[in-house]
């Protein structure tokens, strides 16, 4: 029973335990007392390592090899929703979620994803305990003491930020480690803004510590937190606090603007910049890798960035990534891309809604940003009348270069690295050796290898496959694993700043920031003199494509909602492009819903993940207050 209590942190675990005084004095492995731990330099450092243990890997590591939030928003459809309906996405789509058994909180915690409530509170307790002990601990090097303490503060800020993103303002603030024997009846949940200020306070401790570096420069320290991460967390969380879902009717946009302005300036001053050069042209600019309408240096640049892991070095090639996961994403060519020679599964299939979000190359939105669809099911697009470039009969021509780097569509081309047993006409430059052939991606109905299909696991559900994270040379004959997931990057911070600036009325700053992102992508600047309302819409649209399939959309849709809203306009229905090949080789395009029934994870209660039922019941019984999120 005592060891079970250690799995949960803070009051949630404390309420489970009948007699816990001895447990509080033990290390997480239950073999050493805390006094013994903090009386030894190496054991003190090892205890800090336990504070790192619950940083999630993200990427495809959600159970079962899924992009999780990407598939639960309007960005994509998960093929496992049908093949394995008991796994996370299938249960989310079917509304099979309760506080007692939710696919996010009651699922495998492999790679740190899932069981967030217990795991993050466990990490917070370890961080708080470390902070309370480190000043008097035996540490040989004073610089280590200062750095370790700063790391613990920053890690606590990170875990709080993750809890706040998922669960909202149902959290107490833990400045000191709780004694399991104390009276918890007076424990209260803090407001969203109050928790954000606490997170920023912890970040400021890290930023004020001279011994904490701005960047990790050696492999031996890979994965350690640093000052740049503190700025990224501050940037994100004050933006979330100012957003309609979380601001409790108060205006925090000016503060969000100032915080983001300072964070962005500090990151730039300390060497962070957008990834602006193709460094591996032989891979990303070769005629084999990028043929056809998607042959574009900006396309190659964007694809290279997301398929390469940041190297730890004093002067790295990648200066955009602020903090990346500790592990790669696995063989995504086999589980979350276009499939492989064994035809396992395609995983994440981008939706027509995401495809519609990419502008044409002249910088015009394809759809009306105020009302993109004329019907609830998104089958009737409301085209932007100012766009004279988009052609519904040739829908993939002349689009934002990021579209070609992120999505495989009907007619896309990539290097053929698989041993498909298929007809030679599916390859270009046949009969060249397999490694020199170019595979033409065909997603039309009845195409036997990569065509759209409602249930085949390796096939696309939507008419599209994910490309963004898939190395151009990866496949069954060349199994290149997906790059480490970029948890924080400068591009996101720039867009955080742009949004806060636009909302605060600092329109020139907002436009300049957005245009920096667009210039890197090869897109024209936004029209001058946009109104505040129109600029905010363009900032939201820019976030959607620049941060596509990086799990930001899931949280953005929620924070842009009011507490009484639901997600019916975006998440209830998602659509596919069903393509028919005509006898003359031309194609006909028809939109349809991915499945005949609606997804059910759009109602108001899905704005938040519920506190696990047993934890919510304990909190109610001890404090007399209802801690559970609305609807659960």
From TrEMBL:
Signal peptide: 1-21
Domain RagB/SusD residue range list: 321-632
Main location: membrane
Domain spans labelled SusD-like N-terminal: 107-206
Subcellular location as annotated: Cell outer membrane
Pfam family, one: SusD-like_3
A Gene Ontology cellular-component term: cell outer membrane
InterPro entries (alphabetical): SusD-like_N (IPR033985), SusD_RagB_dom (IPR012944), TPR-like_helical_dom_sf (IPR011990)
Protein origin, superkingdom: Bacteria
Gene3D superfamilies hit by this protein: 1.25.40.390
Assigned keywords, A-Z: Cell outer membrane, Membrane, Signal
Similarity comment: family membership: Belongs to the SusD family.
Protein name as catalogued: Putative outer membrane starch-binding protein
Organism field: Dyadobacter jiangsuensis
């Amino acid at each position: 029973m005592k060891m079970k209590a250690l799995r949960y942190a803070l009051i949630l675990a404390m309420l489970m335990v009948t007699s816990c005084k001895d447990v509080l004095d033990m290390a997480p492995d239950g073999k050493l007392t805390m006094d013994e731990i903090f009386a030894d330099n190496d054991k003190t450092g090892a205890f800090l390592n336990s504070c790192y243990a619950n940083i999630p890997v993200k990427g495809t590591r959600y159970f079962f090899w899924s992009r999780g939030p990407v598939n639960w928003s309007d960005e994509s459809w998960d093929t496992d929703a049908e093949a394995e309906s008991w796994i996370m996405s299938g249960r989310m789509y079917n509304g099979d979620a309760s506080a007692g058994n939710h696919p996010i909180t009651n699922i495998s915690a492999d790679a740190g994803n899932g069981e967030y409530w217990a795991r993050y509170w466990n990490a917070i307790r370890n961080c708080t305990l470390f902070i309370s002990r480190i000043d008097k601990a035996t540490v040989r090097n004073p610089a280590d003491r200062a750095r370790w303490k700063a790391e613990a503060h920053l890690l606590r800020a990170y875990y709080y930020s993750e809890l706040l993103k998922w669960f909202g303002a149902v959290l107490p603030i833990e400045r000191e480690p709780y004694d399991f024997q104390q009276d918890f009846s007076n424990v209260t949940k803090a407001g969203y803004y109050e928790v954000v200020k606490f997170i920023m306070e912890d970040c400021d401790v890290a930023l004020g510590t001279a011994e904490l570096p701005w960047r990790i420069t050696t492999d031996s320290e890979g994965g350690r937190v640093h000052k740049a991460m503190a700025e990224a967390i501050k940037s994100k969380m004050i933006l979330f606090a100012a957003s309609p879902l979380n601001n409790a009717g108060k205006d925090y946009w000016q503060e969000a603007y100032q915080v983001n302005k300072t964070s962005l300036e500090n990151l730039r001053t300390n060497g962070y910049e957008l990834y602006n050069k193709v460094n591996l042209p032989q891979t990303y600019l070769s005629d084999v890798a990028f043929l056809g309408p998607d042959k574009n240096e900006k396309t190659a640049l964007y694809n290279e960035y997301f398929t390469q892991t940041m190297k730890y070095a004093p002067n790295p090639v990648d200066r955009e990534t602020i903090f990346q996961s500790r592990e790669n994403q696995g063989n995504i060519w086999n589980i979350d891309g276009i499939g492989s020679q064994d035809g396992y599964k395609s995983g994440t299939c981008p939706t027509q809604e995401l495809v519609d979000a990419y502008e044409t190359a002249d910088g015009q939105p394809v759809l009306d940003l105020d009302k993109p669809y004329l019907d609830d099911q998104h089958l009737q697009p409301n085209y932007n009348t100012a766009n004279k470039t988009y052609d519904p009969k040739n829908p993939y021509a002349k689009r934002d270069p990021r579209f070609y780097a992120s999505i495989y569509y009907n007619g896309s081309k990539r290097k053929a690295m698989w041993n498909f047993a298929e007809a030679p006409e599916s390859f270009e430059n046949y009969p060249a050796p397999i490694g020199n052939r170019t595979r033409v991606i065909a997603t039309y109905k009845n195409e036997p290898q990569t065509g759209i299909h409602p249930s085949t696991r390796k096939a696309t559900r939507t008419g599209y496959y994910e490309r963004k994270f898939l190395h151009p040379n990866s496949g069954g004959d060349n199994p290149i694993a997906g790059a480490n997931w970029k948890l924080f990057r400068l591009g996101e911070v720039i867009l955080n700043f742009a949004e806060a600036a636009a909302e605060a009325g600092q329109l020139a700053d907002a436009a300049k920031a957005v245009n920096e992102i667009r210039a890197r992508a090869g897109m024209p600047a936004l029209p001058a003199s946009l109104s505040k309302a129109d600029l905010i819409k363009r900032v939201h649209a820019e976030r959607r494509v620049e941060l596509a399939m990086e799990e930001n959309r899931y949280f953005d849709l929620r924070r842009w909602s009011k507490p009484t809203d639901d997600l019916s306009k975006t998440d209830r229905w998602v659509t596919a492009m069903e393509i028919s090949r005509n006898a003359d080789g031309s194609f006909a395009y028809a939109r349809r819903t991915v499945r005949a029934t609606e997804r059910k994870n759009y109602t108001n209660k899905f704005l938040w993940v519920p506190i696990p039922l047993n934890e919510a019941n304990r909190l109610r019984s001890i404090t007399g207050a209802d801690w559970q999120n609305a609807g659960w």
